[in-house]
Amino acid sequence: MSKTLKIILWTLAGLLCLLLPGLYNPLNLVRYEIKAKGLTNPICIVLVTDLHSCAYGPDQRELLDAIDREKPDLILLGGDIYDDDLPDGNTLTFLKGVAPQYPCYYVPGNHEYWRDDFSEKMAELDSLGVHRIAGQMVSVDVRGDRLNLCGLDDPYAWEGKGAKGPADHSFRDQLARLGALSKGGAYMILLTHRPECFDLYASYDFDLVLAGHAHGGQWRIPGIVNGLFAPNQGLFPKYAGGRYEQSGTEMIVSRGLARESTKAPRIYNRPELVILDLRADQ
Hints:
By secondary structure, the protein is of the alpha/beta class. It has helices spanning about 5-20, 60-70, 90-100, 110-115, 120-130, 155-160, 170-180, 200, and strands spanning about 30-35, 45-50, 75, 105, 130, 135-140, 145-150, 185-190, 210, 230, 235, 240-245, 250-255, 270-280.
């Protein structure tokens, strides 16, 4: 065996040793503590994004049990819970597992709007008791405190295959209308699918923005590269996943739960269930 061939083989072996651990992708719980103005009691919120009807054990028990252990006050569903290609069975099992037990609030993502049966899926959510808040603000009383939840439609509601025609003229118009509502004193949360518009969100008075969509940038080198590529952000996305702050507004971007639905495997980028512990800002 030539020296050159040996070098090539050892290099390939080293790369393989680096790659294989990165393909290990069990569910990861990521917890953020949020200091929330005006709260008097702690509030636990679970953020679920980008499930894409992927499987988490028999009857989705891995995911449902992880949520049950947290005993959340609210579950916020940040889009792409359905997929436009995979069957809906895993999504329905998950929704039927959480909706009877916890208040659930939902905004659609691009994959919901890409479906030809969008209206039927939204009616299905209604029948399960999941509250759709796209284009709306709802006030929620939790343990004696009030949260204002604002829901923002995905841009595909106006621009893409779905084009379901909300009353607002555009994504920016809907956001501006929601932003004008964010001056009521209660802690304001914006639930949106898209993180790449953070500069726009931060120009309003939202306290906290919750998003998904980026899938963690799909491939990561922890501590070096937070994400390689994300839709609508391209290479080395700015908002691949994690915690961000601008102009007094915080944004948490979930890396999402998509696994078998993705065209490329996740590398050093475990699927993520986000736990938000809101605490009084003393």
